[in-house]
Amino acid sequence: GAVVSQHPSWVICKSGTSVKIECRSLDFQATTMFWYRQFPKQSLMLMATSNEGSKATYEQGVEKDKFLINHASLTLSTLTVTSAHPEDSSFYICSAMHRDSRNEQFFGPGTRLTVL
Amino acid sequence: GQNIDQPTEMTATEGAIVQINCTYQTSGFNGLFWYQQHAGEAPTFLSYNVLDGLEEKGRFSSFLSRSKGYSYLLLKELQMKDSASYLCAVRDPNDYKLSFGAGTTVTVRA
């Protein structure tokens, strides 16, 4: 149990376009999901906390108008990178918090974004 | 603020033991996690400590001392597949956010 999926696993896009990444909890309900970004040879940096039915809360320095988060259901959160630029190229990882499992975060497999 | 420190790299021989230390100074504490991450993949859960002491799980063990702000992950009988990055993370008690250390890259040599 406690499986989290992400789609797509990788995406290449042109500068200026928008990219949507989906995060799904497959076998449990998650009122809270987290979005992380990881640059090469660096650790995970939390971007935002996604709460079902309410607005996401963003970490300091993360532009909320650039990284749009929608958590419309208890099993799905989406991250849209708007007007992507090459510096947005990174590994984006989501996690879903499982309340019945000591509030542990279960991570998705990640999405590799490359902006040309 | 959150400050989590761990060594950048460690190298060990197949079959040996390696200990990865993690020290933390955080505004709150609700448990410490260790994750393994292979290149290009998401982190996978290894261990969780919220009380002082040693938690053993097969070849991997994790220790916590809350008074010292210190944890270690012990990898025994190292195998080549253990070559990976190991991440130490502290959970916030108020919002359950995880703060990650920079990760320790372990290289296992034959």
Could you provide a short overview of the structure?
The complex is a heterodimer of chains A (116) and B (110). Chain A is mostly beta strands and 116 residues long.
Distance between the termini of chain B: 41 Å
**Sheet with the most strands, sense and barrel status of chain B:** 6 strands, mixed
Q: What multimeric state do the chains show?
A: heterodimer
Sheet bearing the most strands of chain A, described? 7 strands, mixed
- Which word captures the global form of chain A? globular
- Secondary-structure class of chain A: mainly beta
Low-confidence runs of at least 5 consecutive residues of chain B: none
Helix content of chain B: under 10%
Measured by residues with Cβ under 8 Å of the partner chain's Cβ, the largest interface is:
A-B, 22 and 19 residues
Distance between the termini of chain A: 37 Å
Count of runs of 4 or more consecutive helical residues of chain A: 0
Low-confidence stretches of chain A: none
Helical amount of chain A: under 10%
SSE order of chain A, one letter for each helix or strand: EEEEEEEEEEE
Q: What is the string of helix and strand elements of chain B? A: EEEEEEEEEEE
| Radius of gyration of chain B using CA atoms only | 13 Å
- Beta-strand residue fraction of chain A: over 45%
**Number of H/I helices of chain B:** 0
Provide a descriptive summary of the structure in words.
The complex is a heterodimer of chains A (116) and B (110). Chain A has 116 residues and is mainly beta. Helix content of chain A is 0%, strand content 53%. Chain A contains no helices and 11 strands. In chain A, the strands form 2 sheets. In chain A, strands 2, 4, 5, 6, 9, 10 and 11 form a 7-stranded mixed β-sheet that branches. Chain A has a 4-stranded antiparallel β-sheet with strand order 1-3-8-7, with no helix packed on it. Chain B has 110 residues and is mainly beta. In chain B, the strands form 2 sheets. In chain B, strands 2, 4, 5, 9, 10 and 11 form a 6-stranded mixed β-sheet that branches. Chain B has a 5-stranded antiparallel β-sheet with strand order 1-3-8-7-6, with no helix packed on it. In chain B, β6 and β7 form a beta hairpin. Chain B starts with a strand and ends with a strand.
